[in-house]
Amino acid sequence: MGVTLITNNPLAAEKYASSLTVRYDGGWDYLQVLLQARDAVHLGQRLLTAPLAGSIKPHQTPYRSVLLAAHNPSGSHAGDVQLIEGAIEVYHKQMQGKRRQQWPEQVKGDFATVDLSLIDGALNSVIQR
Questions:
Q1: Is 9 helix (H, G, I), strand (E, B) or coil?
Q2: CA 47 to CA 60: how far, in whole Å?
Q3: Stretch 39-61: mean pLDDT, rounded?
Q4: pTM exceeding 0.70
Q5: Are 29 and 70 within 8 A, CB to CB?
Q6: For residue range 61-76, what is the model confidence (pLDDT) as tens digits?
Q7: How would DSSP label each residue in 59-113?
Q8: Of 9-13, 42-46, 85-89, the least confident
Q9: Which of 10, 114, 127, 109 is nearest to 69 (CA)?
Q10: Nearest CA to 13 among 58, 65, 50?
């Protein structure tokens, strides 16, 4: 199964660069990662992780990573389209009236580690299937 990681997290991009297809841009914000994932889903890829995984609100972290799988032509991905579109709506609702925080580097490192651990756990689950 071809797995793609879409991320703005440098730790995740570095760790999985040799084992997954990684689409990484350190300049993307949380929303841009969701938009990249949405575009991939609309092109037929399937979500392997929930776009809002970890119950971490968009204004509480600068990093987001999403795992996707190559499209399965025999299966519908309408649920994935709804899920990613819903995540983008949630983002806009939660960010309404809020500015993106400027985090100190050490705190950003902690957020990157949390995001990476969510992806590690998700990949372990996918591999065991």
A1: coil
A2: 23
A3: 87
A4: yes
A5: no
A6: 999 999 999 876 556 6
A7: GG-S--EEEEE---TTS--HHHHHHHHHHHHHHHHHHTT-PPP---HHHHHHHHH
A8: 42-46
A9: 127
A10: 65
